Amino acid sequence: LDHPYLMALDIWELGRARERIRRTRVVNCYDNWLGAEHCWQGENPRRRRAIEDANWDQIIEGRCLLLGDFNAHSPVWNPRARARTNAGPMEALIEGFNLYINNDPDTPTRPKSTPGVSIIDLSLTTPEVGPLPIWFVDCDHPTGSDHEVIVMEWEPIKKASTKTVKEATGWQLQALQADREALEKATQAWKELAASNPPLTDACSEEDIEREASWIQESMTAVLNRFAKPIRVCPYSKRWWQAEIKLARGAYAQARRAWQTGTLGDREHREARNTYYRAIRRAKRECWEAFLVGPLESRDRLGPEDATRCWKALRYTTPKASSTTLPSGAPRARWRPLLLRRRP
């Protein structure tokens, strides 16, 4: 694309051998008005929208995500819109390519002080992508723009086997302790193993201690592998993903399908969606707060290693680059980055 208001980016998901498996095209459009002095489409002299300059038959192919500020109002994506404004090209594009509208009809993307809800920043997906599993407005990170920050995710590739990418990193000990029968069997198995290994004496050497430590580790691992459910972590694992979110996601997916078939109203669909997003935000916040505070059993007796926890968290919060665009018409403007320095 050679256009100041249109940009396309192909994102490839790779396989184990770094081969290209699936492509998702992300198209960003700022649908501004163009006049006769901006002729990116041949010699078109008429006043038109930027969305009309694109050959969408060549751009929208397969998996495609169309985003942008479209500066248009329509009941198609905003039931509260009082009138249709600059909506013709966008409505034709949605209908022609059967695009999904992922915006929440109750969530404004450009806040305003006047009555009504302004939804002009749209997130559209082709049928190959389908409805996005996650879409929400992030109000916790101000950017200086008069538009909201929109967060989206699409489903990753479902791999046939994950044995090579997942490995056991622990065990679900709480579930084992709650199962009395399994706990008794695990305790008996450990006693049988310990009975066959004589304990150390005061005359043991350093090699004997190392051998005993290795035996304890191997024996405990064998017992837990038999009676406790392993915890497997992969690159897609999320610490905040809990059973509550799974239930909310399942309820929202069911409500989404019912809403698309017309058997569920808009209000019930929005309630299920908002419940899902609130559960995600609450789980992320609680996980982050737990990381900063530390384990429950050690909060009353903090040690020197806990004092460095804030600097570990700083790696995830310090911006690597400025997201502020400097104004080109202000040569005297000076901008100084805010540096967080550790006090001695």
UniProtKB/TrEMBL annotation:
Q: Which Gene3D superfamilies match?
A: Endonuclease/exonuclease/phosphatase (3.60.10.10)
Question: Annotated Gene Ontology MF terms?
Answer: RNA-directed DNA polymerase activity
Q: Which domain of life is it from?
A: Eukaryota
Annotated Endonuclease/exonuclease/phosphatase domain ranges read 63-150
From which organism does this entry originate?
A: Rasamsonia emersonii (strain ATCC 16479 / CBS 393.64 / IMI 116815)
Question: Which InterPro entries does this chain map to?
Answer: Endo/exonu/phosph_ase_sf (IPR036691), Endo/exonuclease/phosphatase (IPR005135)
What Pfam families does the annotation carry?
Exo_endo_phos_2 (PF14529)
Name used for this protein in its record: Reverse transcriptase
Q: Which SUPFAM superfamilies match?
A: DNase I-like (SSF56219)
Q: Which UniProt keywords apply?
A: Nucleotidyltransferase, RNA-directed DNA polymerase, Transferase
